[in-house]
């Protein structure tokens, strides 16, 4: 006679009542992602499965559009910082060139003094000048502050609107005062409204990025011209300082 065992029910790890719901949800999402290719195709599905599939696809599309919008907004933030940096660099070029122009005035007085020295029998000395010092080109951009610059204003305009909560929001997306969607069709329409709103915002941000790209190109071109002009003046000052040094050594050698 076999021994009597104490009949106790020991639940297995798979007997969790919530597991069946989770497994069913995962299976449904798997079917939705594969468009029912592994379950007989759309023709073999129930109306409820097809409706749920439509809602799932709409939600996934909304997530993708929002991700694109997020990336575009991050690009706009980086572009804004780049524009501000470019403006600051332009101001630095202008300030440095202005200092070089001031050096020209001091150097001219020194050259005049060196030319008058040496005695009545010495040969008259005059500095060799290839061209006059031009100095920086003063434009409205170089005379404005960083907060007044149009490039800076354009980059920060939309961000300021976001902080103040003034960016446009979809009127089609239900809020607490509106009725929640009760069926698949309404849910899909809500997702489409979200997508339309996000795509509109994306279009606005892309427009901002395009304008910023044009401004960057304009600012970089301005920098290149300013640097070429600065380089010409710096070379001229270098030759004149070298000539003045040679004149000074000759005078000291006498």
UniProtKB/TrEMBL annotation:
Keywords on record: Coiled coil, Membrane, Protein transport, Transport
Molecular function (Gene Ontology), one example: SNAP receptor activity
CDD domains assigned: SNARE_Qc, SNARE_SNAP25N_23N_29N_SEC9N
Keyword Hydrolase included in the entry's annotation: no
Record-linked SUPFAM superfamilies: SNARE fusion complex
A GO biological-process term: vesicle-mediated transport
GO CC annotation: plasma membrane; SNARE complex
Basic and acidic residues: compositionally biased ranges: 25-40, 50-62, 149-158
Name of the molecule in the record: t-SNARE coiled-coil homology domain-containing protein
Source organism per UniProt: Genlisea aurea
């Amino acid at each position: 006679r076999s021994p009597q065992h104490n009949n106790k029910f020991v639940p297995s790890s798979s007997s969790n009542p919530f597991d069946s719901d989770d497994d069913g949800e995962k299976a449904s999402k798997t079917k939705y992602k594969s468009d029912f290719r592994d379950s007989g195709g759309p023709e073999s599905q129930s109306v409820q499965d097809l409706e749920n599939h439509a809602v799932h696809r709409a939600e996934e599309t909304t997530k993708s559009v929002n991700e694109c919008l997020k990336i575009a907004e991050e690009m706009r933030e980086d572009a804004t910082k780049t524009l501000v940096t470019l403006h600051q660099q332009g101001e630095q070029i202008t300030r440095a060139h202005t200092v070089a122009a001031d050096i020209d005035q001091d150097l001219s007085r020194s050259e005049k003094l060196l030319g008058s020295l040496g005695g009545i029998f010495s040969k008259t000395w005059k500095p060799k000048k290839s061209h006059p010092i031009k100095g920086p080109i003063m434009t409205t951009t170089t005379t404005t502050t960083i907060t007044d610059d149009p490039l800076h204003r354009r980059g920060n305009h939309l961000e300021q609107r976001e902080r103040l909560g003034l960016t446009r929001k979809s009127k089609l997306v239900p809020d607490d005062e509106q009725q929640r969607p009760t069926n698949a069709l309404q849910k899909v329409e809500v997702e489409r409204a979200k997508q339309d709103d996000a795509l509109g915002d994306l279009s606005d941000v892309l427009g901002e990025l395009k304008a910023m790209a044009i401004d960057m190109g304009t600012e970089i071109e301005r920098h290149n011209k300013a640097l070429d002009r600065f380089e010409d003046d710096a070379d001229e000052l270098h030759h004149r300082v070298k000539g003045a040094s040679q004149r000074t050594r000759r005078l000291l050698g006498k």
